[in-house]
Amino acid sequence: MKKTLKIASLMLVLVMTVFVFASCAPRLSGTYKADTIVGSITIEFSGKNYKSVTDALIGNNIVEEGTYAIDEEAGEITFTFEQDGEEASRTSSFSQGEEDGVKYIKIDGVKYNKQ
What we know:
The protein has 1 helix and 8 strands, in the order αββββββββ. The chain is an alpha+beta fold.
């Protein structure tokens, strides 16, 4: 009986460990902003969701909302959003860091500073 209880306890601990590591996917939070030649781009991250607003110097603002996933090993971020009533996705290069006390992310080489 004790041996069965020990094995069951060990199996439960292993299963819980798997769930803990699976839930530790990299996530961003807060607002990041980049100033570009065509205007500014602001991306707000909350949980697994994002909202991107491009404030164009010429023309209308562009708003995109959806979910994102980061693959740190590949150095990529994938944005999934709705386009023309269908699900679409875009994968970009990704890195993050801190410079002079300011956190930043880089998406396709564009640096977004945390606000």
